[in-house]
Fold these 4 entries.
Entry 1:
Amino acid sequence: MQPKRRVTPMSHLATDRLGTDAAGIARAAGMLRMGQTVAFPTETVYGLGADARQGAAVARIFAAKDRPAFNPLIVHVATPDRAWDLVRHNDAALHLAAEFWPGPLTLVLPLAEGHGLSGLVTAGLPTLGIRVPDHPVAQALLSAFDGPVAAPSANPSGRISPTSADHVLAGLAGRIGAVVDGGACPVGVESTIVGFDPVPTLLRPGGVAQAAIEAVLGHPLALPADTAITAPGQMASHYAPRGAVRLDATAPRPGERMLGFGDIDGDLNLSAAADLSEAAANLFACLHRLDAAGGPIAVAPIPATGLGAAIRDRLARAAAPRP
Ligand code: TXA
Ligand code: MG
C-alpha cells in the first residue's frame, strides 16, 4: 500500500472555546469569514467547518485532520433553498429534503453551474454532498455566516468522531481556530448519505433510518455497486480507538473492557434499556472513554434495525484491521 500523502498540519494555533450566545456565534462566523477553521455542534457529531468557497480555508480542514485530500467534504447550509443554489435536485431528492431537512440526511447531487465552491471540497468530483443540519447552534452559525460551510467530522482522520467540545479539543486543540461548545450531540452518529446514480442509493447508514427513507420514497434504496469513490466512511478502518475492538461479544475476555447493550452489561452500557436512539447518542462518547482507559474493547451485540444499522456500521469499521 502506498503511504498516505500528508499535508503539514498547522500546530500551536491557540484554539478558542466559544459560547453559543450571540457574541460566540458572531465571533465564530467572523473567524469563518477570515478563512479560519471552526468546529461546531450539529445534531449528529461536531463538524470542523471552513468557508467552502475559500480554497485556503478548506485546505486547513485537511491539514488539521490529516485527512487524505481525495476524500470529499460535506457542505452545510441553513436552508434547502441555499442547497439548491449549489446542487441540481431531482424529484426523489426534493421529496427527501422536504421530509428530512433540516436533519441528519446528506444528499449527494450534481454540482450546479456557478456554484462557487473550492474544488478541494469535492475532491474534483462532479457531485457534492450537502445537508441542512437541525441543531440550533449549527443553524445560528450558518445563518450568521450566510454562506456554505464545508465540514467533516471534527476528529483526526480515522479516529473516533466527536460528540462534545471536549472530544474535539482532545483531538484537534492547537490545530484549529475555535470550537463552539454546544454540549453533547443529540443523535450521536453521522448523517445518512444518499446518492442518486441514477437511483436513490444508500452510501452510508446514519442518523435517519434506512426504513424511514424507503417509506418516503416508496421503494427500497439501492446499495453501492462498487467503491469507486474512496470515502472515509467506506474505508475499512475508521472511527478507531487505539486498542483492538471485538464485536458481538457476550462477555469480556481477560484484559478487555466491555461495552454493553441492554441486558449484556459491561464497564459502560450504550443503553441499559436497549434503546437504539440512546445507544447511538452514547456510542462515540463511550468509545472515547474506553479509548482513554486503553486496552482492547469488547462490544455487546447490537440489533441491525433502525439506528442499529449505523451503530453496527461504525463499530465494524472501529474493529477493522488497521492500515
Ligand atoms: O453528520 C455528518 O454527516 C457529519 C456532520 C459534521 O455533518 N459530517 C461527516 O463528514 O460525517 P465526514 O467528512 O466525516 O464524512 C462525509 C462522508 C465521507 O465518507 C465522504 O467521503 C462522503 O461523505 N462524501 C462527501 N462528498 C461525497 C460525494 N460527492 N460523493 C460520495 N461521497 C461523498
Ligand atoms: Mg468522519
Entry 2:
Amino acid sequence: MSGRPAGLAGVRRLGREWREYATVDSTNAEVLRLAAAGAPEGLVVLAERQTHGRGRLGRRWHHLGEAGLAMSVLLRPQISPVHIAQLTLVAGIAVHDALVPLVPSLRLKWPNDLVHQGAKLGGILTEMRAEKRCVRAVVVGIGINLDRPSAGWPEAIGQQATDLASIAGRKVQRRDVAVAIVKALDDAYEEYLQAGFADLRQRWWAAHAATNRWVRVHDGRTYISGIASGLDADGALLLDTGRQTRRILAGEVELAPCP
Ligand code: BTN
C-alpha cells in the first residue's frame, strides 16, 4: 500500500510518501536505497516482516511476525554530520511522546532504547549518508514490540523484553502506532529545526531511565562505571566516574548497583 494515511492530515514534513511492504530485508536499507534514488524527505516505509533487520552496534533486529512494528523515516536535515547524534535523541523523544499514552511509565535508555520497568519495548537505529561534511540522508528506523510473539521471545534477543499489548492490556494496530510515531516525530523534528536541541535535550534527560543513577557502560571493549550525570550539547552521555567526567559516544548502558 502507498499513500498518506488519513490520520496524518496536518503533519508538516513527514509521511507524504508512505509505503507498506509485506517483506523487505530491512526498512532502513530500503529507505537508504530510495534516498539514493532521490526520494523526498518524509518518506515512511513500514514492513510486516524484515529478513535482515538491523540493530544498534551491528546487531541483528529479530523479526517478531505479527507481533512487531518495523518502520523507517527519511529525513534530509541541513545540519553538519557531527550533530547527527542529536537527531537520534530527537527521534527518541518523539517515539516516547507517541507511546506514553499507552505506557505512562515508559523511559528512554541512552542512546535510544525504549524500556518499561527494565525490559526493552523497542529501539531506534539512525543511519546517515553524508559526503563532504554535508548530510544527504538520515534514516530513523524504529522497531517496537507490539505483542508477545506466539512462540515466545527469541532466545537470541539476550535481554528482557516486553510488548505494548501486555503493558496496555489490549492489542494495538501496527498502522495506528506508526501514525502516532510519525506525528510526534514531525513535531519534534520541526522543533529541532526551528529552535535547536537545547529544550529537547532537557526533555530527553527527564525521560531517561538512568538519570543520576549508577550505570555501567560497555563501550565494545570494556566496562566503565559511573553516575549518568548529563547529556552534553551533542548528545553524548556524561558519566561521572568519581575521578573525571567521561563523554560516552557509543555503547550499551546498564543500570548498576552502587559499587
Ligand atoms: C536497537 O538495536 O535497539 C535498534 C533497533 C532498530 C530496529 C529497527 S526495525 C525498523 C528499522 N529497520 C531496521 O533494519 N532496523 C530498524
Entry 3:
Amino acid sequence: MTVVTDAPRVRDPRTVNADLHCHSTVSDGVLEPAEVVRRAHRHGVELFALTDHDEIAGLDEAQATAEALGLAFVPGVEVSVSWAHETIHVVGLGIAYREPALVAGLARTRGGRDARARDIAQQLAAAGIPGAYEGALEYVGNPELVSRTHFARFLVDRGYCADVPEVFDRYLSEGRPGYVAHRWARLADAVRWIRDAGGVPVIAHPGRYKLDPLAMDALIEEFRGAGGLGIEVVSGSHTPAQYDEWARAALRWRLLASRGSDFHGPDESHVELGSLPPLPAGLEPVWSRWC
Ligand code: AMP
Ligand code: MN
Ligand code: MN
Ligand code: MN
C-alpha cells in the first residue's frame, strides 16, 4: 500500500502580489510610511518593500505598521548612483538597515542634496522663477532629502506647469535651465553596502536610462561583478512592451527579476500599489527567499 502524505503546500512565489519599490515622505513620496503600508495592504499587496531614495528613516514605522496588519515586509532603499555620466538607481531589498557601513554610505549620498537644491533654486531664479528653494522646502518631509520632485510640486502649485512630468521636461531634466549635475554614490559602493547588510541589489527601472545596448551591457557586467543580483522587470516606470524586453534581459544576464510600482502618491503615480501584472513566465522572482 502506498501512503500519500499531504505535505504542506508551499505557495508558488510567482503568484504572490509583491510590490518591492515605493516611496514615502521620508524621500519624495506624498504619504507617510505608515500610510503607504496601509494603502499597500488595502490594495492587495502581499509582500511589500518601502524603498525611499538614499534613506532608511521610514523603515521602523513601516515595519511596525506592516507587522500590525500581518503584511509581509521587506526593508528596502533606493540608492542614487553615478555611472558613466548617468544617474542609475539601485534598489536594495532585505537590508539589515542598521548596518553602520550602509547607514554611513547613505548619509554621504544624501549629503550633497541641500547644496544642490540651493543651486537648482539659483538657476530657476535666473530662469524667472524666484523663491524655489524655500518653496520646495514647504513640500519636504525630511530636511536631508530635498528632491527635484519637491521643486516640481512647488512649480505645479504656483502655476508654472500643469503637472510634475511637465516640470521635469521644461526645467529639471538634463539640459534644462534648472538642471544641476550631481555626483551620487559609486556603483560598486552602493552594491557593497547592500550586500554587506545582507540585502539583494537590484537595478531599478532599467528602461528609463538613456544607455545604448553596449553601455547597458557594460553597466550590468560591472553591477554583477560588484555583487549585483537582480533587475526590475515589471515596473511602474516601464511600458508593457518593456516588461518583455527586460524579462529577456534578466534571462540573458541570469538576474533575479523584481516587480515594483515605484508609487510616489495617489495623484502623481499612474500605477497604484499592487496593481502591476505578474512577472512574465520563466523568471526567478527576487522575492522567493521572503515567501
Ligand atoms: P532626484 O533624486 O532629486 O534627482 O529626483 C529624482 C526623482 O525625480 C525620481 O525618483 C522621480 O521620482 C522624479 N522624476 C525624475 N524624472 C522624472 C520625470 N521625467 N517625470 C516625473 N518625475 C520624475
Ligand atoms: Mn522619486
Ligand atoms: Mn528611481
Ligand atoms: Mn523609485
Entry 4:
Amino acid sequence: MQTQNSPLTQTQRAQFDRDGFLVLENYVRPELVGTLRDRMAALLAGFEPEEQQSAFIGNNEASDDGYFLESGSEIRYFLEPDARGPDGKLRRAKDLSMNKVGHALHRLDPIFERATELLEVCTLARQLGQREPLPLQSMYLFKQPRIGAPVALHQDATFLYTEPASVIGFWLALDDATEENGCLWALPGGHELGLKRRMRRVGAVETRMEILDPAPFPEAELRPLPVASGSLVVLHGLLPHLSQPNRSSQPRHAYSLHLIDGATHYPQDNWLQPLPQEKAS
Ligand code: FE2
C-alpha cells in the first residue's frame, strides 16, 4: 500500500482556513483503495446480521441505542434504515444492506490500522493546527446503490466536542463520488458560524441534543464536492456538511476518520467514551 501524499502547501492551508475544507485529489494509489474495499468485504463475510438490530439513522437526532453508543471502541455493523423487510429479514444481500461499520476500525483491524498510518492524517492534522493529533473514530461508509440514506446537515464538532473545538474529518473516497451517488456537500466558510448543536450523553444508552444557536445555516450556499476515487476530503470540525441519498445504480464507499487534538479538553459526556489511551506519534 502506498500513498502519493506530500505535505500541504501554504496555499492549501490558507484554503482550509478560508473555506473550512480541502480536497486532495489522487491522494492515494488505487491499490490502497482496493485493499480497504477487499478488507471490508472480508469483515462483512464474518458478520451475522441476525445478531444485531441496529440501523443507522442519519438525521443527527439524539440516540437511545446502546449498540451505537458502545461502538466507539468496537467494530460494529449498522444497516441501512430500510434494510429489513416486515418479517425482519434482510431485503437484499448482506453486503448491499450495510450503511456503515464503525467506530474503531483504525485501532482494532490491522489492515485499517496500517492504511490509516499510510494516510498520514496525523501529519495533515498537525499542519492544520492540531498539537497532539488523536485518531478518535473511523467509519467505513457504504451509501448503497438506490437505498443509500442521506446524512443531514451537521457539524462534526456536535458529536466530537472538545474545548476549544479541534476535530478534523478525513474522508477518503473509495469510489468516484458524484452528485448522483451521494457525494459530500459543504457550506464554504461555514466553519466561521460557530457550533449550532452539541450531543451530550445522559446515560449508558441515551443522548440528548443541546441547541447552542437556533439560527439556521444558509443552506442555499451549500455546494457539492464531487471527487474521484482515491481523493481525500479534509473537513474542519465546525464546517456544516451533508450527503444526499444515493439515487444511482453505483455504490459510493468511503473511509472516514475523525481526529481531535489530544491537548484539548474532551468532556466525559461526549457520546464516544472512553477516549482511546494510545495517542498518535
Ligand atoms: Fe460529518
